[in-house]
Amino acid sequence: MKNQKYIQLNQLERDRIEALLTSGHKQKEIANILGRNKGTISREIGRNKRNIRTKKGTIEGKYEATVAQHKAYTRRKYSNYQGKKIEQSKELKEYIVAGLEKHWSPDEIVGKMKKDQISFYANKNTIYEWLYSSYGQLHCQHLYSKRYHPKKRRLKKTKRTLIPNRIGIEQRPKGATNRTRYGHYEGDTIVSGKKTASKVSLAVVCERKAKYVSMRKIERLKPYLFNEAIRKINKKLSKIDSLTLDNGIENTKHKELKIPTFFCDPYSSWQKGGVENMNKMIRRYIPKGSDIGDYSDEYVSMVESILNNKPRKSLNYKTPLEVMIEHNLLTKKEQRKVALGGGI
Questions:
Q1: Rounded CA separation 172/178 (Å)
Q2: DSSP 205-252
Q3: Which of 48, 197, 254, 259 could be joined to 68 by an S-S link, Cβ 3.0–4.6 Å?
């Protein structure tokens, strides 16, 4: 019985419901007579009664078959309209699909649509409804979650390590904490899966306000290799006013970087939420458990490019790269490289 497909009530059944109610039958009796679940009858009567407006507000009237049929028709029409709206507009559908294939979220697609003043439009709820309908399910694979409902997030516990000359996050400059100034970064590492033979990791640095990400592969999770990756990243940036890290062993030689460095509280990596969120986005391209050594430097650069050219709601739908260039946060050499199409 549970696997039986639900069939909408029709006008004839609604006529019978009205007649049976008028003659004094209970909802359970009506369900038995029509061969329907009693819950179906209960919802039908509750949702589709006539509403009567009075000076004191709206009150429920009696159940009338014609009114119920019209209310049910209208509800179905407008619940299906959103998906059909995209299906019936070739230009709108092509624009949305193109954005999804770049791994833009529905919110980012809508923001970009507004910013560029495109002649057609659909809000983010419309796009989600279309994606979750039979029309758009094929394109759900381009969402970061690749699924309808996100998993519950487990907080990652960082191994507690004694950091020499450690300065706590509470002493970080105000402009870094409240994201009112550019030039403040967060760093982290993404490691290969435990079941892989490789020890290759990924050093990740993210600008807190511009959401700009830089990544470099490192052969092992060693302090000198992590520092080397940070120095290479720093060569492309105009300045790093501060760097926020966790208490991992790779950060024990932070003084050698000669960058003001601040550390999260133990087991509180959420305090550098910008780079943690960026890691989640990177995992779309480098799944958890995979061997990072299997990915080329060119592939890592491609992932950087995708994320840095992704419009963000928090940036008024500009891309991180646009913001970095606008505020001169990249070196002139790097800006020229970008202008010539060779950068990210």
A1: 10
A2: EEETTT--EEEEEESSS-HHHHHHHHHHHHTTBS--SEEEE-S-GGGT
A3: 48
Q: What are phi and psi of 116, to 5 degrees?
A: -85, 0
CA 183 to chain centre: 25
- Note the pTM of the prediction, 2 decimals: 0.62
Amino acid at 151: K
How do residues 43-77 score in pLDDT, each as one tens digit?
899 888 887 877 777 777 889 998 888 888 777 65
Helix (H) or strand (E) holding 114: helix 106-115
Residue ranges of E strands in 97-148 = none
Q: What is the CA radius of gyration of the chain?
A: 28
Q: Which pLDDT score is estimated for 110?
A: 92
Using CA atoms, how far apart are residues 204 and 217, in angstroms rounded to an integer?
Answer: 9
Domains of the chain: 11-78 (no CATH), 89-142 (no CATH), 169-339 (3.30.420.10)
Pair 72, 9: CB distance under 8 Å: yes
Place of tokens 């998906």: 83
How far CA 137 is from CA of 99, 132, 244, 334, in Å, comes to 15, 5, 40, 40
Q: State residue 148's pLDDT score.
A: 47
Residues 272 and 332: their CA atoms lie apart, in Å, by 28
Between CA 229 and CA 198 the distance in angstroms is: 18
Chunked in runs of 10, what are the mean pLDDT values of the chain (344 residues)? 61 92 92 91 89 76 89 67 74 92 92 89 86 78 63 49 87 87 95 89 96 96 95 94 94 95 89 93 94 95 95 95 95 87 60
Judge contact between 223 and 251, C-beta under 8 A: yes
Cα–Cα distance measured from residue 164 to residue 52, given in angstroms and rounded to the nearest whole number: 74
SS3 assignment, position 291 = coil
* Residue with tokens 């008024």, as numbered in its chain: 316
Tokens describing residue 170: 């509470």
